[in-house]
Amino acid sequence: MLQRIEISQVGRVYDDGFVALAGASFDIRAGSMTVLVGPSGCGKTTLLRLIGGLDHPTSGRVIFHGAAGALQQPRTAFAFQEARLLPWRTVLDNVALPLELAGVAPAERIERATAMLTRVGLGGATRKLPGQLSGGMRMRASIARALVTAPQLLLLDEPFGAVDEISRHALDDLLRSLWAELAMTVVMVTHSIVEATYVAEQVVVMAPAPGRIVAQFTPSFAHHSPLLRATPEFAAVNAEVLRSLGEAMVGAQR
Amino acid sequence: MSRSDSKRAVPPVSSVVMRAAQAVVPSLTVVVVLLAAWQGAVSLFAPSEFLVPAPLAVVHAMIQSRHALLAAAWMTGSSAVLGFLMAAVIGVTLGSMLAASKFLMRGLYPIATLLQMVPLVAIAPLLVVWCGYGARTSIASAVIVSVFPVLAATLDGMRSTDLGLVELFAVNRASRLQRWWKLELPWAIPSIVTGLRIAAGLSVIGAIVGEFVGAFAGDQSPVGILIVSAIRENRTDLVFAAVSVAALVGFALFGVVSLVGWILLRRWHASAG
Q1: Is ipTM beyond 0.90?
Q2: Chain B interface test: which of A78, A88, A93, A109 (most B C-beta within 10 Å)
Q3: pTM for the full model?
């Protein structure tokens, strides 16, 4: 059982000498919702890919701590900025793809994919093709595909960046309810400070040149509902995150 | 029902038939006008029938020699279809192998391109040496001329696979075979269909070139032999008739491939909205 993820002095320097990430260190508690926020080029996607094993650090380590100090590689799933659905497959077949690749029997994978599609509100669109869906529906299908394998760790790379603001709010609410229901660890990258403040238990603020962590926040609200975004309490936390990011950006320009 | 509603209510197949009809009517009109002009010019200038027969004379030859022409169409069509199918299998297999291995691509693709440059008529006599007289030479000739477009289209299609989807398969720990079967091959189908359409027409040309050098006249002769025999007998009308039959065989094969391609690509079209 995953206990925590330790990001220990993790750095990534590319072959051309570009420092994408310099010595990032923080802990992610198992079962938490952590959001990496910052402007383009601050290394947040690089860090997410390092956590997910899609890339390797040039310095430092990402350590997955299991029970009793044992190291454990968690079952990991990704959702990307683009839905990345196969255009010739129905929504159901797209969502069932990870199970198909893992060799799960057809009847079981259809049952699990249908259940997950129903959970994300796409129960009526299982036979549709991706091109027949709206952007928000495609992202729901992408999230369903990531969750269908019941991952312990879900990594989201700006998953709602391409959808309109209203759909985005709905998707943020869906993500929070899925996270609470499925008891998984979520690490998400976003450009949106409002989104970070709203969905996260832990906000990690990053700044560019070189990519680094500049601040961490743990927003805690008494009542988490869609109306939270309109409260002074939320605005105060949001302003705090914004200020820390602004100070880091000004410091980087000097 | 409003006008836009009635448009939406048209089933996809009917809509395709309508579009096909819209595409064919202008071509047919041009063909009819050209044939009428040809017939008019022959009537007006009365050239030797050996040089330019009138369209009606060609039609007459077609009716008169219909049994021989039908048999020829069947023989040449069979060689072309067999050659085309073999080229499709070889082209997709080789294209997939080259797409999977940079070493193979760098080693084999330039050679395949070079072989494509060699004129078919120059190597056709060699095919007789290797395959003997008969249909095998025609089939081999059809394969040689139509394999490259399929290979190149498969290679290009697979190499253009969306890198995001490749990463998705990597994240889900797909095997190399799974990636080929479930991602790269379906992704390349639009490109492969284009290659197959080109190969369909070429396979008929290849089969006839093979017949010129490697077929023999018998009770029933293929189109290539029919053309050579008609030339020897100064029957230009029959040459035109045989050429028309060859064109019809090529057109039919192209049509079948286009139809299969449309069926395979329906999901792409639907997904494109």
Answers
A1: no
A2: A88
A3: 0.82
